[in-house]
What we know:
Elements: H1 2-31, H2 44-57, H3 61-68, H4 75-81, H5 90-97, H6 100-112, H7 114-124, H8 128-139, E1 148-149, H9 150-160, H10 165-182, E2 190-191, H11 204-210, H12 226-239, E3 249-254, E4 269-270, H13 271-277, E5 279-281, E6 290-298, E7 301-307, H14 309-315, H15 321-347
Antiparallel strand pairs: 1-2, 3-5, 3-7, 4-6, 6-7
Helix pairs in contact: 2-3, 5-15, 6-8, 6-15, 7-12, 8-12, 8-15, 9-10, 10-11, 14-15
Amino acid sequence: MEGNKHRGRTMLNTTSGLMLLIASLPLVSLLFPGMATADYSTRQITQEFIERMVEKHGFSREELTELFEKATKQEQILDLIARPAEAKPWYQYRPIFLTNSRIEGGVQFWQEYAETLEKAEEIYGVPPEIIVAIIGVETRYGAHKGNFTVLSALSTLGFDYPPRSKFFLSELEQLLILSREEEISANEFKGSYAGAMGIPQFIASSYRQYAVDFDGDGRRDLINNEIDAIGSVANYFHEHGWRTGGAIASLAEAKMPFDYSGNKLKPGKTIKAYKDLGLIPQNNIPDNALAAHIALELDDGYEHWFGFQNFYVITRYNHSALYAMAVYQLSQEISYRYNLATEDFAEY
């Protein structure tokens, strides 16, 4: 019996000590700034960010502090950004996106939103297959929009990822402004580990600048509204210089050893200049057309392409030649099968 009483006193003392330790954690974190905290609200760098938002945009200091109590550091995000898919060679990257299920899903999406896609092409000049392919690559037509809390994602990358902290802190600023404009709590946005949101995976600054209310309901909803997403992707491409009816990419053949390094995405040389270097187009392209050389790594060499202005525009969505080529090739497969299905239906 005495033993039980003793154990009871020990447990009580231990529990009391633990409660005291927990209660003192905020003080400890202030005394030792390097120690990890449960949320971002007490960090000095966060308080400095909050102060800028108060002075620059008129936010409430108290409300922002309360908001950042909900933002936590995500180690998984830091791991993911250190190994992006675009670091893979083309022969490993391509199979991720050029799958039968993604192609068939694109055909179905096109069939369901054919009228909206036609309207987007009429207004912005961007063909349906490109819009569909973008949404297919980004979220599998809205099925996988990301489960990260965007506030925590941007806080993690802004406050704890020095290589790109300036960019992500800017996006965190844009997220807070967006949440005020759209009257949605910043903590409610879900998305990718890099803070991209909704069906087309717009980052906050792109959401604010390029999202459109394409169905006319008075809201720009990229989270749940496919019609707004379609119009917004088309507007994004239009604003970044899409040329209606222009070429996107074309295969090339290297007649002599060619420098494969440093794929420059922006067209900067004429086809004639490339021919003189031994890079020959496989299609009939005017000599004065500007292009960029795109070298894609295969498991036994390289595949060569010319990328034109519209290819470059695709890279404004994601600054990667691999990404743009995946979108382009997926768009071609979707277009072929969509037209085949349409013809079969017409014949029937």
